[in-house]
Structure formats: structure tokens, C-alpha cells
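Notes continue from the previous slide.

Worked example: a multi-chain complex. Inputs as given:
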Amino acid sequence: MTSSVQRKRIRKSPDDRRAEIVEAAATVALTEGLECITLRRIAEQLDVRPGLISHYFPAVEDLVAEAFGSAATAELETLLPADPPDGSPLNHLARFFARTTGPAYDDMSRLWLNARHLSRYRPVLRERVLGQESLWRGRLTAVVRAGVDQGQFRTEDAQLAAVLILVVIDGLASHANTGLGNHPPSVTRLAAATAERELGLPDGALAPTS
Amino acid sequence: MTSSVQRKRIRKSPDDRRAEIVEAAATVALTEGLECITLRRIAEQLDVRPGLISHYFPAVEDLVAEAFGSAATAELETLLPADPPDGSPLNHLARFFARTTGPAYDDMSRLWLNARHLSRYRPVLRERVLGQESLWRGRLTAVVRAGVDQGQFRTEDAQLAAVLILVVIDGLASHANTGLGNHPPSVTRLAAATAERELGLPDGALAPTS
DNA sequence: TTGCTTATTGGTCGCACACTCAATAGCATC
DNA sequence: GATGCTATTGAGTGTGCGACCAATAAGCAA
């Protein structure tokens, strides 16, 4: 008959709970960074006990990888949906470029930086990052290829062009990350020009001239 | 008369000790990452007690910033010496490009990634990163400007061109970091072509055609 | 040689972390 | 309403971290 107050327990199906945990972790990853994914932090956010997180993810590293994968997949689906909605490849690419160089992409670009760095120490995360890179590259390559097929783009190697675009975007993001921040639009314009040239597009076709 | 064995103490001048500590921390930063700069780790490497490190750096964060600054400055001095040795701006730039996209730059490129990410949480480090960015940008801009003056390069805005080159290099490094690793030389070539175009150089002037 | 300054130590504190596991209570099923 | 399965808890372990500080010895100056 100890006076200890017992905690109200809410019991959920393993699938639901797992999904909840991953979602919470993905949110924390995007807003605070992957290293803030701790048992305590996630448990607090879900109002459960740390032990429960451990129960579903015996090793935190697995949860970290899962969270990154979840966030990256969701973001990619927004940027370049698998089943292309209406619009030409040029439209899709222009939107992709505009979004990934815009402020709405800040969190995700930070997360990429974060994940790439951390993946040096965490093998499980590393695999996920490689997987996502390949996914993003594939998706973008498909768009480029479609554009070539429709005569909108002209390039020798679609995949190579896609990688170049990703490299340039990552470079911009990497620089922006410190907060030199929003480099003058001129840099973004120059980066766009690089992509435009590679795809045989006229100046300003991908992003508005500043 | 306790039987505790007393440690042999080696007493050095504050300046020497400080320099020693920063150097050790810079090495750790380059090889293991900035988060491995801990009182215990650095103390162990120098064969002193953790308290001593605290004595010189009451806040570890300051040591981290110092270590990054030291490593970055040393690297820049190697890549783009302040007092240019013999060689034309084109030579200097070509060497800079070759080195920063080569394997010898791996550690430093990882460190940049590391520092940019960490600077999100550590204000002191952040300031250092911004300072180094400005330093690198300035140094590279000077080279570009010299090349323009000598008629080797042709570009409207030297600083803008310099930033674009840095962005492309960072993008390559960021990608390479995960270990997709050494992307095919073709990507590097494409990146070089971007810089060449921006500087009004013929194809292959900056880096050998693959 | 003696004395004094101070660089260095050793010990300790409090905190946050991941991980473990027996006990327990929520809930689907009958 | 009773039963059984298991999702969830509570309590605890051990590790590594930054920070603090009184005591101490190294080595310079007198």
C-alpha cells in the first residue's frame, strides 16, 4: 500500500506505437538535430517512459536511422512525387530547384548535413543516407530523362546531370547552413545557370533571373 | 604517508602549453571529429590531467572553436598561401581545385561539414566558421581578381565567381563525405567545367579532361 | 640555498546518456 | 465478468561528460 501514484497507461498496437515513435523522432531530427534523438527526449514528447522507446528500438542508432529515412522520404515525396502530377519535366525541375534553394528547405538541408556528418560514426545511419542519396538521385534522373525524351532538355548523360544539380544544391545548402545564410540571390542564380547550361536550357529557364 | 604514487609534473610556459593543447585538439578534430574534443581525450593525448585543459580553456567550446580555426588556417595556408609563390593565378587556382577535390582534402572537407553542422549549437564555433569562410572567400577572390587583371580570367564579379567555386567544391565534398565517396571523376570534371565557364576559360584549363 | 609564484594535480560533484528487467495493468477475447 | 497476453512502467546499472577547487610541487628569482 505504498502511496506512489501509478501512472495512467495508454496501450496501443505495436504498429501504431512504432509509427508514432518514428514520427516524433523525425520531427525532433528536423527541428533540433539527429543528436537530440534520445530516449528521454522522444519519450517526453510522446508522454511515455524511456523504457518503452528502448522496447521498440533496442538500439537508439536504429531509431535515428529510421527517423532520417522517414523525414527524407517524406520530403522527397513533396519535392518530386513518384507519380508526376500535371506539368512538364521542366516545371517539375524548376519547382524542385526553387524549393531546395528556398527557405522552406532549410530544415531538410540542415538534416542532410547533419546526417552526412553523423554517418561517419554510425554505420546504420550511413546505410540509410546512402539509400536516400540513391533514391533522390534516381528520382531526379528520371525527371531529367523524361525532359530529354520530350525534347525539353539536352544532355549527354542524364544521371550525371542530375548528380551535378544535386551537388550544386548541396553546396548552396552547405554554405547557407552557417548563416552567411541566404547568400545573395546572385549565387543562387549562378548555380541555376550551371544547371541550365548542363541541360541545354536558355538562361533563366530554371530560375528567374535576378 | 599514503602510498599513493605522485605523478611527475612537467611544468611549461602558459604560451607553450596553450599552443600544445590547441594543436592536439586540431589533430583530434581532423582525424576523429570536433565532438571528440573532450577534456579527457585531449588530456590523455598530452599526458596531462583533464583539469589542466580546463585551466586553459574554462569552457570546452572555446577550445573547439580554437582547434577548428587552427586547422582551417593551416589548411588554407597550404592551399592558397597569402604571399603567392611562383606561378600564375591560373596555376594557383588549378592547384587549389585539384587539391580540394582530391583525397588529401578528405579530412579537411569532413571537418568543414562537421563544423558547419556543429555551429548550429555552438555560437563560439559559429563565429569562427563565419570568420574562416570569409577568410577563404577573400583569399580565393584575390586569386580570381589577379587572374582577371592579368587577362587570364574573364568574369564580371570576381567575388561571385569565387563563391561559386567554393559552393561547387563544398557540394562535391558534401556528397563525397558519405562515401558514395569518390564520385566518378566525371562529376568532378563537370564541376570544373562550371568553374571554367564562369572564368571564361577553355575546357580543361582548370582540371584535366577525363 | 631559500622563498614564492603559479602551473599542475587529484579528487569530487552533478548531470545526461543508453540499456536492462522484473513487475504490472490495459485490453481483446471469450 | 473473468482470463490471458503483452505493452508499458518503474527502478536501477554503468559510463562519460564538463566543471570546480584546495592542495601541491616545479622552477625562477633573490
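Summary box: Chain A touches chain B through 40 residues (CB under 8 Å). The first helix of chain A runs from residue 14 to 32.
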